[in-house]
Amino acid sequence: MNLIVTTAQQTLPSIIQQAKDIADKLAVPFVPRNHYSLAALKEKYELNELIVVTTTGPIVHTPAGEYFFHLSMAELRIKNLLNGNHDHMVTAMGLMPDMSVLDCTLGLATDAIVASFVIGEKGMIIGLESSPVITLITSYGLQNFTLDSEPYITKALRRVKVENADYSDQLAALPDNSFDVVYFDPMFRDPILKSSNVNPIRTLANMQPVTPEAISQACRVAKQKVVVKEAAGSSEFARLGMNTTVGGKYSSINYGIIECKPKMAGGGQP
Q1: Which superfamily, per CATH, for 74-259?
Q2: InterPro entries from the entry (predicted)?
Q3: I want to staple 110 with a disulfide (CB 3.0 to 4.6 A). Which of 24, 72, 76, 123 is the partner?
Q4: Percentage of residues in the chain with pLDDT exceeding 70?
Q5: Exposure pattern of 185-221 as b/e (b: 16+ CB <10 Å)?
């Protein structure tokens, strides 16, 4: 991994230790800041990306901008749900309290946070993320970000469990009927470049398309639905065998759906 970890110019000893711990976890060098600018560090170490650990959390600096944990649209979407408004992802998944969700492509965790809010305290949501750097940033935010004015959102953050893992490996290892819903939000084949929240992580994220084999495994693992998020009109839905889609009339996003049936022992249908 061509990456280093450093800190802000003037910081606390605890932050320096945190940066060292992060560097050890990622198996990359920790470099003291020593009054270097970030541009100078990138030039010295021939880097495109580096992580700066600050008092508010780690920040990844990439050529496309900074990547750090933030709620993105999750806060607004949850407030819309509280006001009785519609959320296309919630509809596509058929989310209800107490359900279990496997988010195979956690990324920024925006969708996982919304799902966590809907399924509630007795629900279960696990997010898989194959990028160690994205896993680091998202895990830190989910466990440390606090919204004092909306404690129900903070609780939704804490309930999302994160695993640094490739979904293909994890799905193959899971038993039948492990989750009510299995969800994929891959990097779009035709990216929506105006999506500034995602642009900084394009060089860090897994860019591989979802395979039909992964969908087949997901259908085995899911009791109710497999859902894939993609750009509206994408050919990916047809390629993955998804004939049903949900999305707003003017939305740039659609959700492809495969309805699943619970599997009996031995792989048969009830």
Answers
A1: Vaccinia Virus protein VP39 (3.40.50.150)
A2: 16SrRNA_methylTrfase_J, SAM-dependent_MTases_sf
A3: 72
A4: 91
A5: bbebeeeeeeeeebbbbebbbeeebbeeebbebbbbb
What is the distance between the terminal CA atoms of the chain, rounded to a whole angstrom? 47
- Please give the model's pTM, rounded to 2 decimal places: 0.91
Half-sphere exposure of 224 (CA within 13 A, CB side): 14
Q: Which amino acid is at 33?
A: R
The whole-angstrom separation of Cα 218 and Cα 168 is 9
Cβ(66)–Cβ(60) under 8 Å?
A: yes
Kindly report the three-state secondary structure assignment for every residue of 151-211: HHHHHHHHHEEEEECCHHHHHHHCCCCCEEEEEECCCCCCCCCCCCCCHHHCCCCCCCCCC
Q: Are 168 and 174 in contact (CB under 8 A)?
A: no
**Pair of tokens at residue 157:** 């953050």
If one counts every other C-beta atom within 10 angstroms of the C-beta of residue 116, the result is 29
Q: What is the pLDDT of residues 1-56, one digit of tens each?
A: 689 999 999 899 999 999 999 999 999 999 999 999 999 999 999 998 999 999 99
Rounded Cα distance between 61 and 73, Å, is 22
Banded model confidence at residue 270, pLDDT cuts 50, 70, 90 = very low
Q: How confident is the model at residue 194 (pLDDT cuts 50, 70, 90)?
A: low
Per DSSP bridges, beta strands 57-62 and 100-103 are unpaired
Residues 113-126 have pLDDT tens digits of 999 999 999 999 99
Mean pLDDT of 140-154: 95
* CB-count burial class (<10 Å; 0-12, 13-18, 19+) for 69: buried
